[in-house]
Amino acid sequence: MWLLLLIPACLAAALSCFRLVRVAATADALSGAETGRPGDATGIGLYETAYLAGGPARVVDLALVLMAAQGRLHLAHTGWTSVVDPQGRDRLERALIECIGPEGQCRTSELREQLAVHPAVLEIGGRLVLAGLATPAVVQEATSAAVRQVRQALLLSLLLLGVSMALAPDSADAGAAVAWFALPLVLTSGTLLMARVDVHPYTRWATQAGQEVLHAVRPDPAGTERELLTAVAMVGPAALQDARLRAALRN
Prior knowledge:
Elements: H1 2-34, H2 46-69, E1 73-75, E2 80-83, H3 91-100, E3 105-107, H4 108-116, H5 119-130, H6 137-167, H7 171-198, H8 208-215, H9 225-235, H10 243-250
Antiparallel strand pairs: 1-2, 2-3
């Protein structure tokens, strides 16, 4: 009986690991093709720092916190965002106000989703990719999905092993099941361990060079608005001391 359960476990393990290897090879090629032109990128500011640390969603959070701190937006803990000052000071702020709509308020969750895919935000990532500091979105998405599939194959193998042992009529059959299920378990767990070194960098928003830039970020003197914004760019809403503002962004 356990042989019938071993087959899908082995297939899932082999296919998921093969896909991860292919994705890793493709990631090397794509990253090499899309980097190496730092002259096309601008300097690293707060929005660029936010993108490298947390991607488009972090950029949106930073823009919301910045405008709220300056009194130009009201973020309610009930999950609504309202415009106080409709004059955006840069392209991203104008895009944010545009996403809110003519009524001047909208659900914060909907605003974050719309703005995260707005060209004004994606352009920041594009410049960082050209500079070799950010991982191309297609590489990150494909790599993350491949890693998830290997994890799922590992969990499936463990589950099927448990079922096999429960159905085994005697200890000899149970021992044989453990021995054979070791194949997909070793394959998937070993692939995940190697992925931590060779593939994991492609699942982050920042490349190795981008990580070095983030490590070089130095916070401004305590208590300044710049320090608050830098903390949000690096860590996200969790860095906010205002509980109501944290609740507004989480909603």
